[in-house]
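haha ok so turns out i had the wrong file open the whole time. this is the CORRECT one, sorry everyone. sequence first:
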Amino acid sequence: MTRENKPTNEPVMEVRNITKEFPGVKALDDVSVKFYPGEVHAVVGENGAGKSTLMKVMAGAYIADEGDVLLQGEKVQFPHPQVAQEQGVSIIYQELNLLPERTVAQNIFLGREPSRFGLVDSRALNEATLDVLERLDSEDTISPSAMLNTLSVAEQQIVEIAKAISFDSKVLIMDEPTAALSSNEVDILVRLVERLKARGIALIFISHRLKEVFDLADKITVLKDGQLVDTVNPKDVNTGDVIHMMVGRELNQFFPPLAEPGDIGDTVLSISDGANDFLKNINLELRAGEIVGVSGLQGSGRTELAEALFGAEPFKQGTLEINGLNTPVRSPAQAIKLNMGFVTEDRKSQGIFPNQSLRDNMLVTVRALQRLLAQVKRDGVRKNPDLVPTLGEQVDVRASGYDQEVQYLSGGNQQKVVLAKWLAPDTEVLIFDEPTRGIDVEAKASIHEMIRDLAKQGAAIMMVSSELPEIVGMSDRIIVMWDGTITGELPAKSSEAEIMVLATGYENGDKKDAELVMESKS
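then structure:
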């Protein structure tokens, strides 16, 4: 029987005076924090504040230049994350570290499979896996023999947590655990966190979603520019206080003003009765100067709609018009030629070339457009050498220079580079899929301003987001999806409750339905 970690008045883990430098950057500067068993301790700050570096020092991925790490009162130095895990310190990254072609059991006990006569004992392996899943009350929903690639993101996250606690974890670090989850899946994670707290595990929670931080955390530590600002009790502060600690100033307005009726122009893109293998009966218009927000639960068809409009998974039925002309978009290359842009949900795998420079990333779209239009000899990039710094200033990217590799930028600055590559060819229609996922509050505000400025300049914008406050705060018009179709359209400043009614399939929902939905979520 695995022992449980009993809550005590002593910290289970502590960092004292931690300093860590990289070439040209002091990532951590004399940081001290205590983490107690049975508590959720949120660590927040802007991108580049030092959160990830501190977690990697604690989990053995980095060794501090100065300072000490203490585990249950004793100084430790983990030469490798595996050593940290074996001593009870586990970290779950936003990009899950699992093998999709292996079973749940094989993932949880990878390299530690029970054996018999020199062979893996599958029965013992599955029994050990069930024992771990029972501790998370997940044995009825996740089978040890299930292939990992058949599970939802939330279920894969449970497998990652099960793997961590199979090492008898005392400390579990969770890096942006809700970033890729729907609201229903977040509820599952919240219940799981409560069970882990009850087992006396110290949970360290990194998130840019301050509402979740206040909902879950027993303590909040704020980092800024590699230094500790403060550790506070969420009952003693509000969101504005934490934001002020994070950015050093007030963010009085979270979202820029919405468009006025006179700011919205003619229809630039429209789809009538659009359908493909997943989407059905799609009717939508995008107008110049307008931001259309697209909301819905995970799997509702939000990303599929964006991909269909951009030609990645094109419509097989229906009429697509651009500037009044019937113009089917069958591929992303055709979309680019038609002055369309698509800021994808996953910037790391689909939005940037991490090993290439800012310059090359910013120019990739305009160069592709020139090739598509057979204008290589009239190279506009060469004729306009100021294009890259102009784009850099326009998106306010922070880097050591335009020849710096994009992989070394913060998440917010990487997103700005993605945006810059679509600004280069004067894009007329811009589709954003989760434009602020995984970036800090100040970078979010900056991205929001840029999106609104693009609309003011006449771009027709569609913005997909799983964050209801972002949808309400940014959208001049809101469409809501469910099961591959648009269940309704709402005006600007509609309530989150009204959106949720349509997102859960109530096509003719009223305010009473809205109240019931929001009551059930709380």
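The two ends are 36 Å apart (CA to CA).
again sry for the mixup
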